[in-house]
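Next comes this protein:
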Amino acid sequence: MILVTGGAGFIGSNLVASLTERQSSPVYICDRVDSDEKRLNLGKHSIAGIIEPESLLEWLDSDGATTESIFHLGAISATTERDPDVLLDNNVTLSTALWRWCAAQECRLIYASSAATYGDGARGFDDDPTPLALAALAPLNGYGQSKQLFDLDAVLMAKMGCHPPQWAGLKFFNVYGPNEYHKGGQRSVAVQLFEQINETGQARLFKSHHPDYEDGGQLRDFIWVGDCVDVMLWLYDNPGVSGLFNCGTGAARSFADLAKACFAAMDRNADIDFIDTPESLRAHYQYFTEARMERLRDAGYDRPFTSLEDGVARYIKEYLQTNDPYR
């Protein structure tokens, strides 16, 4: 059987959709299905069961003892979370317990790290898995710090010989796509721009307060959620591949490009209003993120990544403009 933690969430429910479409193994999820949006994220899929997060380890030692692969996507992912105990308990302690269980039970583990570990990007976006390189990163928030801590723990435990038969951590960059609607203010800029354009005919973007970037020229590595799922399924199909990998496209695009892609997908003329970046954000605002993808490519992943224009068009036309925006 397969377990997906965070299986009712954004990336998790898209993975569950693909796993259940394969119909190869029973798929269980661990999550709090505590909103209509999360229930709808799962509504089309035949899952074998739902485990409450507080019962996960007990379930693994009993009914879940035959689990052969865990996709650990569950986490406190809000970058605004300030309670260090909450972040440590959910993003580090539980992850370490799952790692040790998988090592003892010969269960494979593929888990979600984050590009938030790179902080402002001053040290680059190289997914160097050495302990010194990981320790040198400077995340800007507690969420990023918690992901950095577990990445470091994972690499150190692997070096000591305590590791699952396959393990992989994926540093997801700016993911967009269906089933993110429960995330509130943490939703992708793509869906927020769609809503703005749909309601007002205009998109709002932050002005640049950096001399090297024009208004709307701030750059991000936007990745279609389906590409993230493809990477996870490729790892699942290639159990000999382990390590820490970036999961982006390797091609940074501007927010202006994103807005124009939205207008084009909606068959509207571009109309962008640039507003001041709030003072509270300016000191730590990122102007550039771009995943280095050589390590994943060198490991054998050769599928192309979806272009921003194609991903946005698919998101809008196949989901956001329909009566059923869920995958």
In short: Residues 84-105 form the longest helix (22 residues). The first strand starts at residue 2 and ends at 5. The two ends are 22 Å apart (CA to CA).
